[in-house]
Structure prediction request, 809 residues.
Amino acid sequence: MSNYKSKELVSKLGPLFGLILLIIIVSILNPSFLSIANIFNVLRQVSISAIIAFGMTFVILTGGIDLSVGSTLALTGAIAASLLSSGMDPFLTIGISLIIGLILGAINGVIITKGKVAPFIATLATMTIYRGLTLVFTDGRPISDLGNHYSFQLFGKGYFLGFPVPVVTMVIAFIVLYFILQKTTFGRRVYAVGGNEEAAKLSGINTDRVKIAVYAITGLLASLAALILTSRLNSAQPTAGQSYELDAIAAVVLGGTSLNGGKGWIIGTLIGALIIGVLNNGMNLIGVSSFWQQVVKGIVILIAVLMDRKKTA
Amino acid sequence: MIQMSGISKAFNGNVVLENVQFELAKGEIHALMGENGAGKSTMMKILSGIYTKDAGEIMVDGETVQFKSPKDAEKLGIVVIHQELNMLPDLTVAQNLFLGKELTYGKTGILKTRQMEKEAIKLLSKLGLTINPRTRTGDLSVGKQQIIEIAKAIASDAKYIVMDEPTAALTDREIETLFKTVNELKAKGISFVYISHRMEEIFAICDRITILRDGQYVGVRNIPETNFDEIVAMMVGRELGERFPERNCKIGETKLEVRNLTVNGLFQDISFKLKKGEVLGVAGLMGSGRTEVAQTIFGYRKLSNGEIFIDGKKINVKSPIDAMKHGIGFVTEDRKTEGLVLDFSIKDNISLANLEKCSSSGIMKKEHENSMVAKYIKDLKIRTSGPEQSAKSLSGGNQQKVVIAKWLGTEPEILILDEPTRGVDIGAKKEIYHIINQLAESGVAILMISSELPEVIGMADRVIVMQEGKLTGEVNKEHMTQEVIMQYATGGEQVV
Ligand SMILES: Nc1ncnc2c1ncn2[C@@H]1O[C@H](COP(=O)(O)OP(=O)(O)OP(=O)(O)O)[C@@H](O)[C@H]1O
Ligand SMILES: [Mg+2]
Prediction:
């Protein structure tokens, strides 16, 4: 038995070794990478993409995909900003925005399960719809006079016990989601739906409900990321979150979760998001041109996936 | 002529074959027997280049060979029909038959679709199967897919054909055509390795039997010079006793009643009663609609018409969840697609239908889950290195036991078993029969679909027979013979 486990562990640790290797390379090329200020900076950037990628992990584990997360982020961010600027209580604003995110996600889930539309197509459509609604809602202009709400500013810019609040939020989200995935019946159902949907159904699992729930969770997390972003920038951009879905998918895949569903883990996603974050930051520090950055990022993803392929073969 | 000697193989330090030998002469049908997990499939996967051996030698026609991939073995004419089907469900029958060996116009890559479809019809009719070659393969029954798999091997001009439990999903008539074809090919000098848990078949068709036990070679016997008892003793290493254990049946009131159950296009007007403590057999040919009836009772199919009663009360099952709430369990027919999440461990598969029981307010209770799983691994004698072993890496028979364990965990009051002993060895079969008996004795109502007539006759208190979606007969214990059941199943004259 220990043999099965240790083999699995080695394959799971791959991404971690990759991350450590990357950190070593970057800090050799530019030692200032390791300064506290820069590390916090990386973590703060990573927190937003990681939170989105956590949700994406749930969706991908069920064998689905969600392309609408970036648009959901923009729409809920814009709604939050306009509520604040209209003078609403920040806590109420946060609550309403999260609920709207949840609903936007659940809509994806309902289209996919009840309408029997492939996840890729369904969320491609809602990606466009949600983005369009954001543009309509904001009239294509950023919303920036959010008023002076200390508690809301804390969300993106504050510190808690010496750590940036977004990072603390990410860690809390991670712990809660890890617990849900590994220790609850719901988590088990998520894996089962992705592993063999028919067997799951025949074992008395309401697979539709599980799927709607994972998309709803993803929507909720996208709106959480929107709140952090809006607070940090002290404004909401109608174009916010563009191509975030690709970074999220990349983080999930880098972390070793299978796009076929049923196999993977959320720790991997955190590591994947950190790899992308360190890569972005490191290339900036070293002075790689932003054009080349794209090329490098793509190559890293490709290498990770190819190595994963080898392991499973 | 193939000679394998000194073959050893371990997975992650787990030895599954140790110093095993096997010989296959030209034009012989050689049976490979042993309990679930004895290493039969692994041995044949080594012969066909899917697994590499850790030690030993393979000689083909006197020359030592090293297979690095299935392609190498195929070049020497070695073809395997695997225990678990390998058809692509979305391709047509003809596309599957010619997969990788498509007929084209020269090297252009343009397909000769017409010709392939014609060839497909010819090949399949040789095996007694008349179907449109454009049918989507996934729409066919497991039995029919199996025949296509066999046709595929025959089409590839194989010299050595390994059949890993080919008849597990076939009905008697299909088996007969298969045997006829095998004997014809044998006369042409083609050799067969035949893996099966069905003794009758092996004695009917094979020339020799090699027996494995726990990954070790036990011996080889010529068929006319041996008998059932000797082989069984070699396989299990002990006396097995009666094949169908006695049941102390106390049949009670009606537990389940279905009236005029109909699903348009699949079956019509099915009515029967199932009593507490009773084992009701459902016999019929492959495709007669038995599985579909079971699925409908379990809420997996929408019924067009008819009523279902439990304890005299009409119930409405819209989904498996409803059925489970009414105490129904369903051991499905195809373990790979319906029964198991292959990437899950044994533990996770068993608890899948028991998540409520293994948790409180949605949080898994580890100890509870572990002890339940440990109990069933022990009770059902599942041969495994531990509860964390993945279902995928279990032998076929042990996979079946995991599916049964999953449903025993729900403590059903009505248990539907669809081919419960398919691919299960003789010792484990008896264990499963024993479990069925225990359940029946404790008052569980059991509906047992089975294509193995000796099993139906040995186990059932009463049998209903289906033919082409209709109920054609009911036979009581006293009148149960293979002939009577087959007559109802094939629509022959109904003499009782
Ligand atoms: N890929 C694998 N990884 C780990 N263990 C394996 C793997 N394949 C087979 N095994 C183990 O090897 C043993 C022999 O399996 P095998 O499939 O050869 O049995 P079998 O004789 O064909 O049984 P059955 O009659 O049930 O089909 C089993 O204990 C099984 O769990
Ligand atoms: Mg086998």
About this structure: The longest strand of chain B covers residues 14-24. The two ends of chain B are 50 Å apart (CA to CA). Chain B touches chain A at residues 12-14, 298, 300, 319-321, 323-324, 330, 332, 337-344, 348, 351-353, 355-356, 358-359, 362-364, 385-390, 406 (CB under 8 Å).
